[in-house]
Specification:
With about 240 residues, the protein is an alpha+beta fold. It has one domain: 2-Layer Sandwich (BirA Bifunctional Protein, domain 2), CATH 3.30.930.20. The protein contains eight helices and four strands, in the order H-H-H-E-E-E-H-H-H-E-H-H. It has a four-stranded antiparallel β-sheet with strand order 1-2-3-4. A hairpin with a 5-residue loop joins strand 2 and strand 3. The protein is globular.
Length: about 240
């Protein structure tokens, strides 16, 4: 009796890179020609190599980010979503260059989708300086006080966040904040005005086929801090 033939396993689909070196080439050129005439002449390059790939990345990231936390959203809407605009706000700046020379996205808490100062995860794509991480950037004073108060109230929990020498990044006060004991063992952490963690990336990593996996690992590494911040601000993680 003939042996039934085994159906050949379907080949795995190779994931295409989310980004190509053309993204960084465009941003380098933009840094050298940061004016509206040049940008309009090169808008197709921006659309093809920066804007559309970043929107696709955000869309593709959603299911993987949900495995880190279901409270944070990868929103692929072109306006009002996770992607930051390329246009600079020059109203209060001496630098009147009209365009940012990086591309970026923030994956915000579902209960604070419009607030860039709420806890979240972040992706920064700049030539020579790609970065990924998560935390709290320029929070409102009341929110920052709540975070500092939780560090004091929950020292063991904070110790778990910084276990293994995790480096907290962000702007920092030169002196202890008013109302906090200068002799507190965590006073150096209490001086922070931002609190985020992350890691530098390379352009090669960003342009690799497994970049989504690499970025999700970055979010996973930042998750203990983001969880602590969410608890301090009484929102879900």
């Amino acid at each position: 009796m003939p042996t039934p033939s085994r159906r050949a396993a379907a080949p795995r689909t190779r994931r295409e890179p989310s980004f190509t070196p053309a993204l960084f080439d465009f941003l380098r050129d933009l840094a050298a020609h940061n004016d509206r005439a040049w940008f309009e002449a090169n808008r197709d390059r921006y659309e093809q190599h920066v804007r559309l790939p970043l929107l696709r990345f955000i869309s593709d990231l959603g299911p993987a980010l949900a495995k880190v936390s279901k409270s944070f959203v990868a929103d692929p809407r072109p306006v009002g979503g996770s992607m930051f605009r390329i246009y600079r706000d020059t109203r209060f700046s001496k630098d009147k260059s009209p365009y940012k020379t990086h591309a970026a996205a923030q994956f915000r808490h579902r209960d604070a989708s419009g607030d860039v100062h709420a806890p979240g995860f972040y992706l920064h794509l700049e030539p020579g300086e790609p970065f990924g991480g998560g935390g709290l950037w320029h929070p409102e004073p009341a929110d920052l006080s709540r975070v500092r108060e939780r560090i004091i109230a929950k020292p063991k929990e904070w110790a778990g966040v910084v276990r293994g020498g995790v480096e907290i990044l962000g702007d920092k006060l030169k002196r202890p904040p008013a109302g906090f004991d200068p002799a507190h063992p965590y006073i150096e952490y209490l001086k922070y005005k931002d609190l985020y963690v992350g890691g530098d990336l390379t352009e090669r990593e960003v342009c690799s086929a497994d970049f989504i996996d690499r970025y999700v690992d970055t979010c996973r590494n930042a998750a203990p801090l983001v969880r602590f911040l969410c608890k301090a601000l009484d929102v879900s993680f």
